[in-house]
Amino acid sequence: MIMSENMKKGFIGPIGDDLPSIIAIVLALAIFFSSITFAFNIYNQKLENLNLLKGAIEVSRTLTVEGLMPQNAADIPLDKAKVVASSYGLDFEVFYDQGTGVSCTNPSSVVFNHVVATWDGDSDNIALENMYICIWR
Amino acid sequence: MKFNKKSKGQGAIADALFFLMICAAASTLLFHMAGLYGSSTNEQILSIYNYEYAGNTLISLHYAKDSDGNWFWIELKNELEKDIDDALDYLEDNAQIWNKIQSSSPTSLIYLCFHRNENQVGCYPEDPSSLNLRAYTASIRMDEKWTAVIKLYY
Q1: B8 reaches A (C-beta below 8 A)
Q2: Do B31 and A126 touch (CB under 8 A)?
Q3: Cα(A77)–Cα(A69) distance, rounded to whole angstroms?
Q4: Is A126:A78 a contact under the CB 8 Å cutoff?
Q5: Confidence class for position B31, pLDDT limits 50, 70, 90
Q6: Which residues contact A8 (CB under 8 A, 6 or more apart)?
Q7: What's the pTM value of the predicted model, to 2 decimals?
């Protein structure tokens, strides 16, 4: 029996012969591009967290620069801190420790606390309080 | 035996496997770098917070009043002029001030230390400086001889 040139044993075709290598190449490319996407997402997430921390430090510093705070947390001057927070795209709240621990409005807040001296206008009535600052995006 | 010049080897598969190996190595490197990114900056920002906490603690002590209604910082300076032990006893007698600071501190290892002419002479509570701990400090010069230092250990 005469076999034609093309009918050699084990010969599938021009693409068929390359099929195993194509599968491996496609798999390699899929792994590589998905890892690039994953790494890029991680990078963006970490950058956002770092900006949040950096902004939170600036807001905390602006609030505590005065040293002497009003005894009522609602009277704490927040204007400068609001300007700093808005430049970072953040929001925040400030309260004194009431003995119940930290309870921020936004559960994903960064919390910084500082000891501050509070004053009600009478120089004999100065108390140290633990001031919590909750900052979130 | 006649050698068939048209016979093909499996070189393409070997090349593809090498390519797969290289891509796997590159992906591993990418994951590693993504995990490491920002960790040192994160640490630096938290360090800044610790230094600021120590500084704000010193500022609040300047405004504090002791149990007799006297300015805490002035009385502390007066006690230091007598002796370091008198100053430490004064701090012990007004422990409510230090307890407030300690309860709000980010670390339980917070100390108020006194340096005389650059040498540490005493701390309240007793300073574990013999332990190999990372320290964050803020200091203020009280007068020509004395410097007060707040130390936070981690």
Answers
A1: yes
A2: no
A3: 9
A4: no
A5: very high
A6: B6
A7: 0.81
| Residues present in chain A in total | 137
Question: What pairing do the DSSP bridges indicate for beta strands B110-116 and B119-124?
Answer: antiparallel
Q: Which of B37, B56, B98 to mutate to test the interface with A (most CBs of A within 10 A)?
A: B56
- Going by C-alpha positions, the residue among A135, A97, A93 that lies closest to residue A114 is A97
- Helix, strand, coil in percent for chain B, rounding step 5: 55, 20, 25
Placement of tokens 């949040």 in the chain: A52
Question: Please, which residues have CB within 8 angstroms of residue B62's CB and are 6 or more apart in sequence?
Answer: A67, A117, B73
How do residues B34-53 score in pLDDT, each as one tens digit? Answer: 999 888 898 899 899 999 99
A interface with B, Cβ–Cβ below 8 Å: 8, 17-18, 20-25, 27-29, 31-32, 35-36, 38-39, 42-43, 46-47, 49-50, 53-54, 57, 60-61, 64, 67-68, 97, 112-117, 119, 124, 126, 128, 130
What is the largest distance, in Å, between two alpha-carbon atoms of chain B? 112
Rg value, chain A, Cα: 31
